[in-house]
Amino acid sequence: MKTKKFNFIFCFIFIFFNVFCSCDNQSVLNQKSTKKEIKPITLPPVEAIVSYVYDGDSFKAKSHGVDIKVRLFGIDAPEKNQPYGKESLNNLIKLIKYKKVILEPIETDRYGRMIAKVYTVKKVDKKEVKTYINLEQLKSGLAWHYKRYAKNEKDLANAEKAAKNNKLGLWKQSNPVNPETYRHRK
After folding, report:
1. 79 is catalytic
2. Rounded to whole angstroms, how far apart are CA atoms 95 and 74?
3. Active-site annotation holds for 113
4. Which of 37, 47, 79, 160 is catalytic?
């Protein structure tokens, strides 16, 4: 019961924080700035159920009746219309859709999404085993390590390197284009 109450309070604070930051960012935008700042947050993990997966690195989850838009921390998945975009989306669906996840918030982005480390938990031999979803997308070769935002995350860097070396997923291509470059070309 305490956990549910705590999670509800967390969701309320998160939503309030996003509304507050959106207003703050609007006033900043009106002062000749075209770029919203990413706001670091220090909030505890929250449990949620994934209701919709947008693409290979973002989804919507619900916690205590509150919808939360989430972007996976430290990775950048191909866009849907980019090579391996559908495969990345389908892999994330397989990993998390309609499942309980644990969100460890890192920050909010300029779109108001929670940037988070995302985990699933399952029981194996009466022990809870956590799976780090962000890492799983990289291990499968279905995302890039987003070094600009997660340069100190060695596990993410190592997973990308292993996928490249083993030519998994998008690394089968002779010259894959990272999503950031792809978005700027459009």
Report:
1. yes
2. 17
3. yes
4. 79
pLDDT tens across 48-90, in order?
999 999 999 999 999 999 999 999 999 999 999 999 999 999 9
For the chain, helix, strand, coil in percent to 5 are 40, 30, 30
Query: What are the domain boundaries of the chain?
Result: 2-136
Annotated catalytic residue within 71, 136, 153, 160: 71
One DSSP character per residue, 78-122 reads PPTTSTTHHHHHHHHHHHHTTSEEEEEEEEE-TTSPEEEEEEEEE
CATH architecture of 2-136: Beta Barrel (2.40)
Q: Of residues 113, 136, 153, 160, which has the active-site annotation? A: 113
